[in-house]
Structure to design on (134 residues):
């Protein structure tokens, strides 16, 4: 029998200084916290076969999804359907902190990327691949 997997997610997200930290990876979904520094961004991308749900914990920014732009702040949730071009930018003076759920997983289980540059390098080198079923 599986034990309860529990996070006080807003606290965990706020306490993580890392650009990206994978908290949990399941067969069909993955939970990740992110901290985007002032003036930073996730970077424009498309996940062809992955839905993504982002919930903002603190800070202010812009969500650019499918050609539309919307301001985001604490308590907002944004859905990015698979195959949709998107980017999230920090437009405020403080870190933009969020947690996101990918379905299916997008990143390597347990991955921690301290900066966007480190995350980009891991993705480009193939070191940030989601788990595969054998």
């Amino acid at each position: 029998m599986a034990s309860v997997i529990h996070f006080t997610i807003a606290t965990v997200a706020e306490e993580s200084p890392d650009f990206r930290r994978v908290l949990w990876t399941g067969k069909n979904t993955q939970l990740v916290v992110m901290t985007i520094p002032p003036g930073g961004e996730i970077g424009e991308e498309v996940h062809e076969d992955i839905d993504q749900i982002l919930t903002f914990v603190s800070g202010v920014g812009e969500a650019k999804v499918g050609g539309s732009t919307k301001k985001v702040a604490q308590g907002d949730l944004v859905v990015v359907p698979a195959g949709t071009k998107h980017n999230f930018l920090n437009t405020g003076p403080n870190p933009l902190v969020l947690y996101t759920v990918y379905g299916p997983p997008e990143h390597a289980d347990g991955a921690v990327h301290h900066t966007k540059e480190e995350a980009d390098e891991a993705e480009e080198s193939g070191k940030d691949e989601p788990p595969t079923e054998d």
User: Anything to note?
Assistant: The chain has a mean pLDDT of 95. The radius of gyration is 14 Å.
